[in-house]
Amino acid sequence: IFDVLVWRCFLQDVEIQENLISKFQDGFIHRPTTCKMHDLMHDLAEFISGNDCSILQESSSCQEILQGSTDSSLQHEVRHLSHYYVFGNTIAVMEDIVAPRLRTLLIQKELEQIQTPFSMAKSKFVSLRALKTFSIKTHMTNLKHLRYLDCSYSDIFALPEATTMLYSLQTLKLIGCEKLKKLPEGMRYMSSLRHIFLIGCDSLERMPQGIGQLNSLQTLTSYVIDSDAGRGIDQLKYLNLGGALSLTELRKVHSAENAKQGSISTKHNLKRLSLDWENGPSSSTHAGYEVRNDAEGILEALRPHKRLEVLLLSNYIGAKFPSWMHNSTLLEHLSELSLSGCMNCKDLPPLWLLPSLGYLGLDGLDSLTSIYVGNDDTNNVESRISPSPFFNKLETMIVTNMPKLERWHQEVTGQVAVVSFPQLKKLTISECPMLASMPKMLPLLEDLLVKEASDIPLYHLMNLAAQSNLECKGDISVEPTVGWLPVGCLHFSRLGDSDVKLRLHDLRENVECFEEELKIIPSRFIKNLIISGSDCLFSSEPSQIQRNIWNHFGFMDLESMWICNNNIVQWPAVELRNLNLLRHLHLSCCSNLTGSLPSTICDDEDVMPPRLQFLLISYCENLVEIPKLHASLETLFFTCCPKLVSMPTNLGNIKKLGVDECEALTTFPDGIYGVTALTIDRCPRVETLPEGLLQQLPTLEELCVTDCPNLQEAFSRGGAYWNLVELIPRRTVGLN
Predict the structure, then answer these.
(1) What pLDDT is attached to residue 72?
(2) b or e along 521-551 (b: 16 or more beta carbons within 10 Å of the residue's beta carbon)?
(3) 389-412: per-residue pLDDT in tens?
(4) What digits encode the pLDDT tens for the residues 503-549?
(5) Are residue 650 and residue 696 in the same domain, yes or no?
(6) Helix 511-519 crosses helix 544-555 at what angle (to 10 degrees)?
């Protein structure tokens, strides 16, 4: 019916969700189908249905029902009702008004503070065919016509045993019931059941006994295997299941013969299959590195049919993958594969031979050292042929938590490994501390995320991103003992602009080595630079190597720089003047900085970056002055500079000006126009302000004056300048 409605354009834009990140453990193989309805078609359908269908939200119609209005058309005609909110007395009122004719009741949302169990004990909803609710009571004998029951995302711990009395029920949805532990034992008698959705029911302990008797069952999204009779994998033998199936607790399968009784290979309607030896990644019973001898035979017996599209294998405790994973013909339709927690497997099957593989996820393969081994150790003739090309259709690859992974391919005598990903668009590498290289050719790469993979040379990543015209975001640290290392993650993509922060820490020697390394890093990514304790980069008479380094910084698109804990005496004029794009500069904890210019620089020479807008100088105990500022500067702050005696005179374009703990400062320069925010804190020697600045006080948006006795008195109520500051919107004087 759905396909016919799509064919007739009643529904459109049908999509199977491809989001591989799900909050549910089994979300990898379960993909909801979404669609849209055109506005005109929706209006037409609404008109034709009349009062047969009704959607109630916070509207007058909703109030009519709650008030029991006898002349409401809903009382006489509505058959299909969707209610957005449920209040305490909603159900009771609806029973009296709309229950006799109602066929569909969908409760979309329940207020958390109001628990309204749907009581079926003496329900008047005797004609109900479809029900969506969040909690139900135990008696359901009146709902003999119910075909669809949806209790998804509810907090129920167990489905009432009385549910088995719903003999007409065809669809049971329990999606996202994370607390659900038990299903009714008598479910085997619900012979009309066709679809059971258990996605996200991660607390489910076992299945009801004899579920294999449900001969009409077409969908069973999850099956928890148990060793007790009537709850094992053999219950799946005669079920013709389709769509997606997740098998958990495979460790409880007795033997390979027992696994064959599940008849997985005969279920030709299955598109997506998950095989989990435990019950998700958080299971506390995982056997670790212990190898079970029968695990390989069990997995061999779980061979799927050749039309399978998605496969997820988790927590497998065997040492080798089965032969059917070496057969590219058997898996010729497989488009997505995820291997997770297979800690004992040292080699991968020849996945690069799978002709349709577009997604590959590898997570927690603790023993794996190489993605590709040229000489496969199976007897399969196909696997011993040198593959060409390598992963020819793969578009997405996720490699995470692989502590022993060292390389992408292992060289074998007599074979040439052609390692390429011609179609790869997204690559994620995380927690692979021993991986020391990257694929050389990724021509279509659009998204690259690298995290906790410190052995990969940084210039490999940068050059790869530059070749693919990607932008980069992240932090990079350079230290003498460890060299260049990413801090956190580096994310390369075609979205947004690059924003890389380069941190230089304790570079006191080997400046030549740093210069050579700097040449091979693409400079366009770096927007922020932090230089801490790196005295070798500063000098009153810079060497040629130092000049080369700063010239290279000038070629970067640097927008922000922080210089701290460096032994600088004179203002770094030579170093800064070529940083043409720099907008933000912070000098901190440079205790020997006086602010004077080097002898090679004239006093009137413009030494500030031409686009500098923000300048902050803090904790520079010997700072006396700073050079002439550029007209582009808008914000100037001094903090904890006790010897500062004067500020530059050209502050005409300053918008925000602040001084804090500058005990030697006595006055401000004249000619300050256009300032909107002024802060003066702990500057006891400042007694008055110049005439030009006083004239600007009424136009200020923000004023803060604290611990300045003379100024505080003048700015306080009744003081000399009170009439100038009383209308400032944000004003702090003293402790007020």
Answers:
(1) 53
(2) bbbebbbbbbbbebbbbbbbebeeebebbbe
(3) 578 899 999 999 999 999 887 665
(4) 998 887 767 888 888 887 777 888 999 999 888 888 878 888 888 88
(5) yes
(6) 30
Question: Is 197 a member of any domain?
Answer: no
Can you tell me the distance from the alpha carbon of 717 to that of 153, in angstroms, rounded to the nearest whole number?
61
**591 and 713 co-located in one domain:** no
Residues 272 and 244: their CA atoms lie apart, in Å, by: 5
Cis peptide before 609 (omega within 30 of 0): no
Between CA 677 and CA 635 the distance in angstroms is 9
The radius of gyration of the chain's CA atoms, rounded to the nearest angstrom, is 36
3-state secondary structure of 322: coil
With a CB cutoff of 8 Å and minimum separation 6, the contacts of 92 are: none
Torsion of Cα atoms, 114 then 118 then 123 then 129, to 10°: 130
**Cα(91)–Cα(119) distance, rounded to whole angstroms?**
9
Measured CA to CA, the distance from residue 418 to residue 352 in angstroms comes to 11
Instruction: Name the maximum alpha-carbon separation found in the chain.
Output: 98
Rounded distance, CA 352 to CA 388, Å? 9
Which position has the token pair 């019916």?
A: 1
Domain's final residue, options 591, 625, 659: 625
Among candidate residues 526, 113, 27, the one with its CA nearest the CA of residue 312:
27
Query: Could you tell me the residue range of the domain that residue 696 belongs to?
Result: 634-735
563 shares a domain with 590: yes
Alpha carbon distance 540, 36 (integer Å)? 69
Burial class (CB in 10 A: 0-12, 13-18, 19+), 26: buried
pTM exceeding 0.90: no
Q: Which residues of 364-508 form beta strands (DSSP E)? A: 370-373, 396-400, 407-410, 426-430, 447-451, 471-479, 483-493, 499-505
CB 80 within 8 A of CB 98: no
DSSP state of 390: S
What distance lies between CA 670 and its chain's CA centroid? 52
Angstrom distance (rounded) from CA 200 to CA 221: 10
Cβ-proximal residues to 317 (8 Å cutoff; 6+ apart), any chain? 251, 277, 287, 290, 291, 292, 295, 343, 344
Q: Which of 320, 324, 294 minimizes the C-alpha distance to 311?
A: 324
Asked if 575 and 662 sit in the same domain, the reply is: no
Establish how many alpha carbons lie within 13 A of residue 229's alpha carbon, considering only the half-sphere containing its beta carbon. 0
656 with 583, same domain: the answer is no
Residue at which a domain ends, from 625, 659, 687: 625
DSSP 471-540: EEEEEEEEETTTEEEEEEEEEEESSS--EEEEEEE---S-HHHHHHHHHTS-GGGEEEEEEES-GGG--S
End-to-end CA distance of the chain: 72
Q: How far apart are CA 131 and CA 103, in angstroms?
A: 9
> Could you give the dihedral angle defined by the CA atoms of residues 157, 158, 159 and 164, in that order, rounded to the nearest 10 degrees?
180
Task: Indicate whether 689 belongs to any domain.
Answer: yes
702 and 589: one domain? no
Looking at the predicted structure, is the pLDDT value of residue 502 above 70?
Answer: yes
Q: Is residue 46 scored above 80 in pLDDT?
A: yes
Q: How many domains does the chain have?
A: 2
Residues 500 and 615 in one domain: yes
Report the alpha-carbon distance of residue 332 to residue 397 in Å, rounded: 18
643 Cβ contact partners less than 8 Å away, ≥ 6 residues apart: 621, 622, 623, 624, 664
Q: How many whole angstroms separate alpha carbon 624 and alpha carbon 585?
A: 18
Q: Are residues 613 and 476 in the same domain?
A: yes
> Is residue 613, in this structure, part of any structural domain at all?
yes
Let me know if residue 618 belongs to a domain: yes
**pLDDT greater than 80 at residue 156:** yes
